[in-house]
Amino acid sequence: MARAVIGKEFGPPEAYALGELPAREVAPHEVRVAIRAAGISFVDVLTAQGQYQVKPPLPFCPGSEAAGIVKETGSKVAEFYIGDRVAFSGWGGMFAEEAVVPASSLQTIPAGMNFTEAATFSVSYTTAWHALVDRGKLQSGETLLVLGAGGATGYAAVQVGKHLGARVIASASSKAKRELALAGGADAAVEARADEWREQVRAANNGKGVDIVFDPVGGDATDPAFRSLGWGGRHLVIGFPGGIGSLRTNLPLLKGASLIGVDIRQFGEKEPQRASENRKTIFALAEQGILRPKIAKRYPLDRFREAMEEAVIGQCAGRIVFDLASS
User: Fold this and answer.
1) How far apart are CA 116 and CA 89, in angstroms?
2) Residues 112-135: b if buried by 16+ CB within 10 A, e if exposed
3) For position 197, what pLDDT does the model report?
4) Please, are residues 68 and 2 in contact by the beta-carbon 8 Å criterion?
5) Fewer beta carbons within 10 Å, N or C terminal of the chain?
6) Cβ neighbours of residue 272 under 8 Å, at least 6 residues apart?
7) Burial 235-256 (b: 16+ CB within 10 A, else e)
8) Side-chain half-sphere exposure of 41, counting CA atoms within 13 A
9) What is the pLDDT of residues 36-75, one digit of tens each?
10) Residues with Cβ < 8 Å from 132, sequence gap 6 or more?
């Protein structure tokens, strides 16, 4: 039987323990994957605590993205074979040594991408792509302001925005995170907690308002970021680990600007074909070396509490990952 992080009730990492997953058969359209790496995000921990906007059924195994090797395929799976290297995402179940998932959720890992990179790639980069291309309609030559640019989706947005031809301004809370964003392609970086933050943003864009705000932060960051938009700007709401911010409704009117929600989970459920096409696009760009996550720390599965706590603190410049291949 495979080991997994399991909680009988929602709560902090201390509420979870290593247990054994009950074996289950692979359905005709499913695949069993031996997990070699799993990404750890703030949202994963939030979901484990029962504080996400949608609560999964209990008992619950956290984790929403992983990578590994196909070890068994269902009778109607024709596109994947035993031994294939694959990345996948889903609603829980990834903090484990194996997972049974729909074949439709799998993506072949490009040559040159290792398991830890693949395990932290799909969710962040599909979110950034969906936000900037489908929702924000980012055009080459526009200016993109990325909040939380040293975090998972923020760093992905820096790379995607640069690939799409934008001038990218990265906002991050630490020097290490700003340096990471600049190394990822940002044209300028500003200190997220600076008193003169808006002045820094405006100076970085030659005194003009920005075209798009990519906001995975929320809280007190939302209002000044929206005020930094130029005429016709778009503010993309990705998440709110900083809390749910408030916004005066006269601001969109005065700026001719839009507040746009981005929900990658519902997008995948309601528009699976477009979501699949987006996933194929970002993995093709990864194969070309254009998009690639940065791994900050690796943990074995038995140190899951420490890893989850570090994901909540959010001080790492880069991704935190379970490395099961070397466990």
Assistant:
1) 14
2) ebebbbbbbbbbbbbbbbbbbeeb
3) 97
4) no
5) N
6) 104
7) bbbbbebbeebeeeeeebeebe
8) 27
9) 999 999 889 999 999 877 789 999 999 999 999 999 999 9
10) 138, 144, 157, 160, 161, 164, 212, 214, 236
Give dist(CA 113, CA 287) in Å, integer: 8
Cα–Cα distance between 108 and 67 in angstroms, integer?
10
- CB 213, CB 234: distance < 8 Å: yes
Q: Does the N-terminal peptide bond of residue 59 adopt cis geometry, omega within 30 degrees of 0?
A: yes
| pLDDT of res. 157 | 98
- Helices 122-129, 152-163: crossing angle, 10 deg rounding: 50
Q: What is the mean pLDDT of residues 179-183?
A: 97
**Is the separation of the CB atoms in 103 and 26 below 8 Å?**
no
**Residue 188 — left, alpha, or beta (φ > 0 → left; ψ -120 to 50 → alpha)?**
beta
CATH 3.90.180.10 domain range(s) in the chain: 3-121+293-323
* Cα–Cα dist 131/176, whole Å: 25
| Average per-residue pLDDT for the chain | 94
Q: What does CATH list as the number for 125-264?
A: 3.40.50.720
∠ CA 106-111-114, rounded to 5°: 75
Q: Check residue 327 and give its pLDDT.
A: 47
> If DSSP codes are grouped into helix, strand and coil, which group holds residue 265?
helix
Q: What is the mean pLDDT of residues 202-210?
A: 97
Q: Which residues pair with 109 in a beta bridge?
A: none
Q: Whose CA is closest to 240, among 257, 258, 261?
A: 261
CATH architecture of 3-121+293-323: Alpha-Beta Complex (3.90)
Q: pTM higher than 0.85, yes or no? A: yes
- Do 229 and 255 touch, CB atoms closer than 8 A? yes
**CA 94 – CA 322 distance, rounded (Å):** 10
